[in-house]
Structure to design on (402 residues):
């Protein structure tokens, strides 16, 4: 019996339920502090550092942090027992286990506790509050991700319930990826709410919308919003699905999540990131200048105090506390990082003002935590993600994934 756990859970929940949006004073220092907590509390990471000749006490600055060895599935997760990768070497300190999809060839187990969900719930809160104004609108959230051991469905369900506990007028139902059940519950429940949010994999959500339309479902009655994850899609796709679902504000009606089984949601599309991406979609040369390629990646904003990103040879690393804490974890996604002010300066050089674009009827004053006066605009850095080309085969220009 862990008699200290109730206190930790109550403290974590209390902090989440009371907190508004915050920005870390010094994310780099927080990353160094995370390293020291993990070095002390996680047996596998202590062994990992010994093997690489790292003395934790000598890591004092962010420059020292940047010299730490990269953590990968091969050199860390597949070398040390699962309990040793958890805090204090205790798997029983976690109350839930999710399983990755196995894109690298073998699924990985990712334990977590209820308090580990709260950092991810904050990202869902960002989407529901900033994109969907869910604090002022009663909302039916329909979880269409697969349920079971895979991370999407149950993790999403837990995070949305945390938002309801915080006071958001959200009611959640979880039919999973059962299309018939989704289309059965929506007419029964959605009429009682101001808006309906469908959360799922983009091609599946499109199939749900098309099937519902063919069956005579009038989506325009339900003020549909979308939370999407798992695949890069084009702005033409967003427009197409938006028209079919009766959505009229592309920057506010949908949001894609950059998430993994490893650490939940790492970043989210925001009204600002969508606005910039839509500008770039029609200007491949500007996209080439910004991303180094003309193809359009997923563009998200992230909280560096929760998920701290770095880049390595054109791929992303991140550090994050969770059931299995990760320090300089090489996720192997192709992409990069752009500072908030750098992004605004880039837009300005190309004659584009995203704040003016967002400041119409969907933006309006008063909603910008960063002082922008535009709803949904926060001064957070950007990450762009092309995907995991390390684990694809290109066949006549088409990427084939495991």
């Amino acid at each position: 019996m862990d008699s200290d756990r109730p206190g930790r859970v109550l403290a974590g929940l209390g902090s989440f339920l009371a907190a508004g949006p915050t920005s870390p004073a010094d994310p780099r220092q927080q990353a160094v502090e995370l390293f020291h907590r993990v070095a002390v509390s996680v047996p596998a990471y202590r062994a990992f550092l010994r093997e690489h000749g790292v003395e934790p006490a000598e890591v004092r600055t962010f420059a020292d942090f940047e010299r730490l060895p990269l953590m990968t599935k091969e050199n860390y997760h597949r070398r040390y027992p699962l309990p040793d990768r958890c805090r204090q070497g205790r798997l029983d300190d976690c109350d839930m286990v999710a399983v990755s999809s196995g894109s690298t060839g073998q699924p990985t187990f990712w334990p977590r506790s209820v308090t580990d969900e709260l950092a991810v719930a904050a990202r869902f809160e960002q989407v529901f509050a900033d994109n969907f104004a869910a604090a002022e609108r009663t909302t039916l959230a329909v979880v269409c991700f697969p349920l079971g051991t895979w991370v999407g469905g149950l993790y999403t369900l837990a995070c949305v319930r945390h938002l309801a506990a915080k006071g958001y007028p959200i009611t959640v139902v979880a039919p999973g990826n059962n299309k018939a059940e989704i289309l059965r519950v929506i007419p029964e429940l959605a009429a009682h709410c101001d808006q309906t949010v469908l959360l799922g994999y983009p091609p599946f959500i499109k199939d749900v919308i098309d099937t519902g339309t063919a069956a005579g479902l009038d989506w325009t009655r339900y003020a549909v919003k979308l939370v999407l994850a798992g695949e890069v899609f084009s702005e033409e796709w967003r427009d197409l699905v938006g028209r079919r679902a009766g959505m009229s504000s592309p920057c506010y009606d949908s949001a894609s999540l950059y998430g993994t089984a490893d650490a939940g949601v790492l970043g989210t599309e925001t009204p600002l990131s969508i606005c910039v991406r839509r500008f770039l979609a029609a200007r491949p040369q500007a996209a080439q200048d910004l991303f180094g390629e003309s193809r359009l990646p997923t563009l998200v904003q992230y909280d560096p105090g929760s998920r701290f990103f770095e880049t390595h040879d054109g791929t992303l690393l991140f550090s994050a506390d969770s059931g299995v804490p990760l320090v300089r974890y090489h996720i192997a996604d192709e992409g990069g990082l752009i500072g908030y002010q750098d992004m605004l300066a880039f837009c300005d050089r190309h004659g584009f003002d995203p704040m003016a674009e967002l400041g119409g009827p969907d933006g309006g004053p008063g909603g910008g935590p960063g002082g922008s006066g535009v709803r949904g605009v926060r001064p957070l850095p950007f990450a762009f993600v092309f995907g995991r080309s390390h684990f694809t085969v290109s066949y006549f220009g088409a990427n084939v994934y495991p």
User: Anything to note?
Assistant: The first strand starts at residue 96 and ends at 99. Residues 151-166 form the longest helix (16 residues). The chain has 15 helices and 15 strands.
